[in-house]
Write a structure and sequence with these properties.
This is Sodium-dependent transporter. With about 450 residues, the chain is mainly α. The protein has 19 helices and no strands. It has a single domain, classed as Orthogonal Bundle (Hydantoin permease). Helices cover about 80% and strands about 0% of the residues. The structure holds 4-fluoro-L-phenylalanine (PFF).
């Protein structure tokens, strides 16, 4: 019998949805631009090491808690904790997670709105509407609010359809479209003059920088953000997985897709930067360092496209279309966190919950836009640098220490009768208990000290 709270209908559906959440602006914009300014392949290696050794086990903690409880993060942590302080702390962790997910969406929707505007600007210049194209690419309040709202309405429309007809169906469509677009763009950019210089920077590691604390902190933040960890997104997606599925395998697939797309996006963005350099666009500052990450996407790449004539307009459209789709499959997962909680905890209908919460988040985005210089960077730092690692730490503690050990192991056996023969069974239960929390704390301490 179908569960009344909704369930993914297939393994493919879940992997597309969870990978859709994971793959977003963080992969296609964040990862390549951070790699470019942090020693290229050195960053890539640290990122890969952290993704497999830390982010994957932390992802498994969320998936297991979610699948066990078949409920949102607040209820899941409440269910597994003994009454008293630990239960209250668990509930608080879940609530903070849903606030952080909403705050992430409030800045994400602004950036995603820019992506849609740049995508439409390419269309406008294709049909000769240059002044419209200029408005679409200029940083004005009216443009910013309009496209943030458009993006929020798209996100709300998908989430109001529920798990199967909304999240699963749209992820199954959008993710393959995104992958094809990305591969086509990489193929094209690699044929252009100057691309090989970008490949060299991306693939030759500067080991001196690989071990610098700044780089490790940046890579940890990138890995957590990229796998959508610490805010209950993966926990809620885990809660929609059937008990027949093999969780370590599904989590592994999601991690692999996420990392592969980040690495693939590096083959697009770094070569594109050096093609731009080759075409006379400035990519270094006066002191010889690379220009900032946002300048790269919104200035360097558009300038590059404009040196390429009509092909540039098509490539520009395709690139920003890709960014918009990637952002949408992530934003739906963020909105689902507070929505699922409100439906399950307060008995509100999905439609009502989606519109009210979506409205509050859009209002928050508007406040950020009105105080852009003060709030934008602050909200990003608060959510991604501090909250995500700390909440990820709490999820590992609850999975590793508070969750009854036998029940946890029982959960691992579901859908996977041979699990006890595998490496995962031997390593993960200890890993999530000791190694993950200690590494997260060590890196977090560095963040505070640095
Ligand atoms: N993983 C997304 C990205 O890489 O862009 C961002 C994200 C999605 C963060 C969902 C947090 C979240 F809950």
């Amino acid at each position: 019998m179908a569960s009344p709270r909704g369930e993914f209908t297939s393994r493919f559906g879940f992997v597309m949805a969870a990978a859709g959440s994971a793959v977003g602006l963080g992969n296609i914009w964040g990862f390549p631009t951070q790699a470019a300014s942090n020693g290229g392949a050195a960053f890539l290696l640290v990122y890969l090491a952290l993704a497999f050794s830390l982010a994957y086990p932390a992802l498994m903690a969320e998936l297991i808690l979610g699948r066990h409880a078949h409920a949102n993060a607040v209820n899941a942590l409440r269910l597994i904790s003994p009454a008293g302080l630990l239960r209250r702390l668990g509930v608080t962790t879940g609530v903070v997670g849903l606030i952080v997910a909403s705050l992430i969406l409030s800045f994400y929707a602004i950036v995603a709105g820019w992506m849609i505007a740049f995508c439409l600007a390419a269309l406008a210049s294709l049909v000769g509407m240059e002044s419209l194209a200029q408005w679409l690419t200029s940083f004005g309040f009216a443009r910013n609010v309009s496209f943030m709202l458009l993006f929020m309405v798209l996100t709300i429309s998908i989430i109001s359809e529920g798990v199967r007809a909304g999240i699963e169906r749209w992820s199954e469509r959008l993710m393959p479209a995104m992958l094809i677009t990305l591969v086509a763009l990489v193929g094209y950019v690699l044929t252009l003059d100057g691309a090989s210089d970008g490949l060299k920077v991306y693939l030759l590691p500067d080991f001196e920088r690989a071990l610098s604390p700044k780089l490790i902190i940046a890579a940890l933040g990138a890995a957590f953000f990229s796998l959508s960890l610490g805010v209950g997104t993966m926990l809620i997606y885990g809660s929609y997985i059937s008990d027949r599925e093999n969780l370590p395998l599904l989590g592994g697939m999601v991690t692999l897709v996420d990392i592969s797309i980040a690495v693939l996006a590096g083959f697009l963005v770094l070569p594109a930067m050096y093609v731009a350099h080759h075409n006379g666009v400035q990519i270094f500052t006066e002191t010889g360092t690379l220009i900032s990450e946002d300048t790269l996407i919104f200035t360097v790449l558009p300038e590059l496209f404009s040196t390429m004539g009509i092909a540039g307009v098509v490539v520009s459209f395709t690139f920003f279309f890709l960014m918009s789709i990637a952002a949408l499959t992530s934003s739906i997962s963020m909105l689902e966190v507070p929505v699922a909680y409100t439906i399950e905890e307060h008995g509100v209908s999905r439609k009502k919950a989606v519109w009210v919460i979506g409205g509050i988040i859009a209002a928050t985005s508007t406040v950020i836009l009105l105080n852009f210089a003060e709030l934008f960077g602050l909200v990003i730092a608060f959510t991604t640098r501090y909250s995500q690692p700390l909440l990820g730490f709490m999820f590992c503690i609850y999975a590793g220490w508070i969750f009854n050990r036998n029940t946890l192991l029982q959960e691992l056996r579901k859908g996977n009768p041979d699990v006890e023969q595998g490496l995962f069974w031997k390593i993960w239960p200890w890993y999530v208990r000791l190694v993950c929390p200690l590494i997260i704390l060590a890196i977090f301490a560095q963040t505070l000290l640095g």
